[in-house]
Design brief:
The protein is an alpha/beta fold and about 450 residues long. It is built from 10 helices and 37 strands. The radius of gyration is 31 Å and the shape is elongated. The structure holds uridine-diphosphate-N-acetylglucosamine (UD1) and calcium ion (CA). The site of uridine-diphosphate-N-acetylglucosamine has 27 residues, from strand 1, helix 3 and strand 10.
Length: about 450
C-alpha cells in the first residue's frame, strides 16, 4: 500500500457555537466531534495523523492520549487554512506519499468516501484532488471554478467571489489529497492578498494549474457527508444523521429498534441479536448488551455489560454495572457504578444499588438502598431495606450470606455480616453480626392503649 498521512485542521475556536468548549470537542453521538474525521482518516489507512491545534490545544491533545498514530502541531495564531497546514510540516518531516487534508468539524465524512477520493487521486497521478459537492445553497463555501473544458482552475472564497462566481453551485468541502512533494514545495509560497487577509490553502489549486500539474475535483456522492458544523443547529442535524447510521447498523445485525428516530445509541455500543429496544433509550459508554434482551422505554445505560435475556424495565438508569443472564431491572431502578449482578437476579422498582455484588437468584423487589454490600445467592431483600453504609466519615461494608431472608423495613448498620441461611425479621435494625441459620429480631415493643381515642373526645 502507498503511504498516506493526514492533516486534520482543528486550531480554530468555532465562535458560532457560542460555547466555552472548542467546537471540535463538542460530543456528537457519544464522542468528541473531531474523533469522527480522525477515525475516517485512520480507516482510510493514514499513519500518521497530524492534528493542527491552537485553541484549547491541551484538551484536544488529551482526547487522543495514548494513540500512537496521532501527532500534534501547534498553530499559535490562526492565520488561515494554508498557514495551518504549513504548521504541520515539521510533524510530517520525512514523510513521502499522499497527504490527506481534513477539517476537524466534518463528523459525517466516511472512510469509504476518502478511499474513493484517494483511488481517483492516485490513478490520475494528480498533484491535488479536492472533494466537492453540489449545493442548492452554496453560500459561505469556497466555489470550484472550472474552465470551459470543465477543468478545475481554482477555488474562490465567498468573500472574494464576483457575482458570476457566486452563482457556482459546486463547493469546496475543505477536504483534499495532495502529493507530498507538491505540498512541501508550494505551501510556503501562499500569500494573503485576499478579502480576509488569510493564507488560503485553496490557492494551492491555482498554483498546481499554473505549473501544469494535474489538479482534479471529485464530487461526494452524498453532500451530507461534507457538512461542516458551525453552530448547534448543524450539530443537532449531524447528530441525527450519525445516530441513524448507528441504528441502521444495529438493525441490520438483528436488533429490533421500535422507533429509530427516538433511540439514542452512541458509537461503540454492542448489542446482540433479537434484543428489542423501545423508544427514548440512551445507550452509551461502550455498553455491551447480550442477545434476546428487552429494553423498555426511557432507559438510560452507560458503561454496562449486560448478559443475554435480561429485561430492563422502563425509566431505569444503569451506570458502569455488570449484569449476568436473565436479570430483571426496574421499572425506575438505579444501578450506580460498581453494581455486579449474577444470573436471574431481580432488582425491582425504586431500588438503588452502588458497589454491590449480588449472587445468582437474589432479589430486591421494592424500595431499597443497597450500597457497599456483598450479597450471596438466593437472598431475599424485603421492601424498604437499607444498608446504612455511611457514618458521615467512612463507608462500611455489609456482607449477607447465601439463602438469607431479610424482612421488610430492615436497616443493616455497616460494618455488619449476616450469616448464611439466617432470617432477619421485619423492622429489625441490625447493628451486630448475625450467626448463620438464626432468627434475628429487634423491635420496639408495641403498646396498645385500649379506648385511648374515645377518652380524648
Ligand atoms: C474553508 C475553505 C472553503 C471551504 C470550507 C469548507 C479556505 C480558504 N476555505 O473555508 O473553500 O468551502 O472551508 O468548510 O480554506 N483552521 C485552522 N487554522 C486556521 C484557519 C482554519 O486550524 O488558521 C481550521 C478551522 O478550525 C476549521 C478548518 O480549518 O476546522 C476550516 O476553517 P474555516 O475558517 O472554517 O474555513 P472556511 O472559511 O469555512
Ligand atoms: Ca468552516
Amino acid at each position: 500500500m502507498e503511504s498516506l498521512a493526514s492533516v486534520v485542521l482543528a486550531a480554530g475556536k468555532g465562535t458560532r457555537m457560542k460555547s466555552a468548549l472548542i467546537k471540535v470537542l463538542h460530543p456528537i453521538a457519544g464522542q468528541p466531534m473531531i474523533t469522527w474525521p480522525v477515525t475516517a482518516a485512520r480507516e482510510a489507512g493514514s499513519d500518521p495523523i497530524v492534528l493542527v491545534i491552537g485553541h484549547q490545544a491541551n484538551a484536544v491533545q488529551g482526547t487522543f492520549r495514548g494513540a500512537k498514530d496521532i501527532l500534534c502541531a501547534m498553530q499559535e495564531e490562526q492565520l488561515g487554512t494554508g498557514h495551518a497546514v504549513a504548521c504541520a510540516l515539521d510533524a510530517l518531516a520525512g514523510f513521502r506519499g499522499t497527504v490527506l487534508i481534513l477539517c476537524g468539524d466534518t463528523p459525517l465524512l466516511r472512510a469509504e468516501t476518502l478511499k474513493n477520493m484517494l483511488a481517483f487521486h492516485r490513478d490520475n497521478s494528480a498533484a491535488v484532488t479536492v472533494l466537492t459537492a453540489m449545493m442548492d445553497d452554496p453560500y459561505g463555501y469556497g466555489r470550484v471554478v472550472r474552465d470551459p473544458a470543465g477543468r478545475v482552475t481554482r477555488i474562490v472564497e465567498q468573500k472574494d467571489a464576483d457575482p458570476e462566481e457566486q452563482e457556482i453551485r459546486e463547493i469546496n468541502s475543505g477536504i483534499y489529497c495532495m502529493d507530498s512533494d507538491f505540498l512541501y514545495a508550494n505551501i510556503k509560497a501562499l500569500g494573503n492578498n485576499n478579502a480576509q487577509q488569510e493564507y488560503y490553502l485553496t490557492d494551492l489549486l491555482a498554483i498546481a494549474v499554473r505549473k501544469e500539474l494535474t489538479c482534479l475535483a471529485i464530487q461526494a456522492a452524498d453532500a451530507d457527508e461534507i457538512m461542516g458544523i458551525n453552530d448547534r443547529i448543524q450539530l443537532a442535524s449531524a447528530g441525527r444523521i450519525l445516530r441513524s447510521r448507528i441504528n441502521r447498523e444495529h438493525m441490520l445485525n438483528g436488533v429490533t429498534i421500535i422507533d429509530p428516530e427516538n433511540t439514542y445509541i452512541d458509537h461503540g455500543v454492542t448489542i446482540g441479536c433479537d434484543t428489542t429496544i423501545h423508544p427514548g433509550c440512551n445507550i452509551g459508554g461502550g455498553t455491551v448488551i447480550g442477545e434476546g434482551c428487552l429494553i423498555d422505554g426511557g432507559v438510560s445505560i452507560t458503561g454496562c455489560r449486560i448478559g443475554d435475556d435480561c429485561h430492563i424495565k422502563a425509566a431505569s438508569v444503569l451506570e458502569d454495572s455488570e449484569l449476568g443472564e436473565d436479570v430483571t431491572i426496574g421499572p425506575m431502578a438505579h444501578l450506580r457504578p460498581g453494581t455486579v449482578l449474577g444470573n436471574q437476579v431481580k432488582i425491582g422498582n425504586f431500588v438503588e444499588t452502588k458497589k454491590i455484588v449480588m449472587g445468582k437468584g437474589s432479589k430486591a423487589s421494592h424500595l431499597t438502598y443497597l450500597g457497599d454490600a456483598e450479597i450471596g445467592c438466593n437472598v431475599n431483600i424485603g421492601c424498604g431495606t437499607i444498608t446504612c453504609n455511611y457514618d458521615g466519615v467512612n463507608k462500611h461494608r455489609t456482607v449477607i450470606g447465601d439463602d438469607v431472608f431479610i424482612g421488610s423495613d430492615v436497616q443493616l448498620v455497616a460494618p455488619v455480616t449476616v450469616g448464611r441461611n439466617s432470617l432477619v425479621a421485619a423492622g429489625t435494625t441490625v447493628t451486630s453480626d448475625v450467626p448463620p441459620d438464626s432468627l434475628t429480631i429487634s423491635r420496639v415493643p408495641q403498646v396498645n392503649k385500649e379506648g385511648w381515642r374515645l377518652k380524648k373526645k
